[in-house]
Design a protein that fits this description.
8 helices, elongated, 3 domains, 24% strand, 307 residues
Length: 307
């Protein structure tokens, strides 16, 4: 009876631990994205804003706010405020842009947290492991692209020993003809085994597919971010997250850092301008589109900004 009571207590303890186990952020994102709750919204977001369907963005995060707070990565934050736009102002009218963090083990977001988006990275593969057998000494590699033609390819890998297993006594006691027959028979058996394995792969390819890993991307402005690599602090002064404060202007300029001698590479850059100047900017410089220069944008801002 005593043993039974002890076992029951152990069972209750295990169930309690399972029930109140702290959820990881990736588990929550997977659950939300696989639930289909955002399916209709995603069609709009992908087409209009160019957002990936692996992302939960802006106001989409609000129904899950309490569950995000309960995740291990945010369990020590004081408050989470959902950001609606990628550029905002603090109470001193300084523009603030959210930073992207790829979540690493033991990372914590603490203090006041302004959160813009949560996302999963594309599936990533360790190049050292893409040929390792998954089942029955075989695997199907992920899609690999030819670096010159960009042609996609997959490979089926079959692992086998080149030495045909034989009963060792045949080499010591058998005649040359017996040894030859045994080796031919071994090769026949091996060919049969490889054919059978290949049939299994083609019948159930998903069972042999190399599995990759997805990471988590967190985008926002955070008072304190801790990880094994150190602590990152930021002074926050009442960010205004409920309205659009800035618009981004894109333009090409020389990429001096990555240009070799005799070459001139270009890079796409951007400058944020106050939203109240957007119409004026479009009327004066909008026709130039991305051919506008950094100097022209800075001159426009200097002329129109009131200190």
């Amino acid at each position: 009876m005593t043993k039974q009571i002890r076992l029951e207590k152990i069972g209750l303890t295990i169930n309690y631990i399972k029930q109140y186990k702290v959820m990881k952020l990736q588990e929550l994102i997977n659950e939300i994205l696989s639930s289909g709750e955002l399916k209709n919204k995603k069609g709009y977001l992908v087409n209009v804003q160019g957002l990936t369907d692996n992302m939960i963005y802006g106001e989409e995060l609000e129904p899950y706010l309490e569950r995000i707070k309960q995740c291990d990565e945010f369990s020590e934050c004081d408050e989470i405020v959902i950001m609606k736009y990628p550029v905002t102002l603090d109470e001193n009218n300084n523009s603030i842009q959210p930073k992207i963090y790829k979540v690493v083990p033991n990372q914590k977001f603490k203090g006041k947290c302004y959160l813009l988006s949560l996302a999963l990275t594309p599936e990533m593969f360790d190049p050292k492991k893409i040929h390792e057998p998954v089942l029955n000494g075989a695997c199907i590699t992920p899609t690999i692209y030819n670096s010159e033609t960009f042609e996609p390819k997959k490979k089926i890998v079959l692992e086998f020993s080149p030495e045909v297993a034989q009963d060792q006594y045949i080499y010591g006691l058998g005649t040359p003809s017996m040894i030859e027959d045994a080796e031919k028979n071994g090769e026949t058996i091996l060919r049969k085994q490889l054919h059978e394995t290949l049939d299994k792969i083609l019948d159930n390819p998903e069972n042999y597919q190399i599995k990759g890993e997805k990471g988590v991307m967190v985008r926002g402005v955070f008072e304190l971010v801790e990880s094994n690599s150190g602590v990152e602090k930021k002074e926050l002064f009442g960010l205004k997250t409920d309205k659009i404060t800035h618009s981004s202007v894109f333009f090409f300029e020389k990429d001096l850092e990555n240009s070799k001698e005799g070459e001139m590479n270009l890079k796409l850059s951007k400058i944020n301008i106050p939203i109240e100047l957007k119409e004026k900017y479009e009327s004066e410089l909008g026709a130039k589109s991305i051919h506008v220069t950094r100097e022209e944008i800075e001159e426009f801002l200097e002329k129109n900004l009131v200190n």
